[in-house]
Amino acid sequence: QALIEFAMDQLARGKRRELAGTTFVPAQRNGKRCAQLQYGIAYNYAEQTVGGQVEPLPAILLQLAEKLVAEGIISPQQRPNTAVIALYEDGEGLPPHVETKDFARPICTLSLSNPVDMCFGDKAGRIDVHPGGMDGFLVNLPRRSALVMQDGLCANDVQHAVGPVKGRWMSVTLRNTEVADGLLVGERKAATGAVVG
Known about the structure:
Mean pLDDT: 83
Low-confidence stretches: 186-197
Helix content: 10-25%
């Protein structure tokens, strides 16, 4: 409950332009993106690049990361340095996409408030979207659950999505932009031309 209250306060502050840079990302009315809060490191969805000014990871998210490490959900080496809190209002959803390789793996998403079904693509990695819903493999994310996408097929090659939510759904996605040698993923890509993920 404390995390939800924190997020709602931050969203209100973001709407009043009280947060640094692109910490607050407003919802797009066409349903392509819900309202978001970015901490630690910004991601520009339009340009698909890492960088920009945002608020540092707040204490409540650092505590959450420590709890995930303590519970063995992620390892100490996988401790996140960036987070996105996303607020989906009734009828909004997460369009099918594959996680950008600008972030190291694993990627950990926590489901808050209401439960939702996350849809993962078929053997070809695609999700078929139609007026009646989406076809793919459904994974139920109960309230207060964590979904960890490790470095593999699920995180790198298969689309995932959430159909229109009923009520309100909030998620927290924790990621890291560093690879083993301390370079940012984007820096390693630029230096070597390699895709790291």
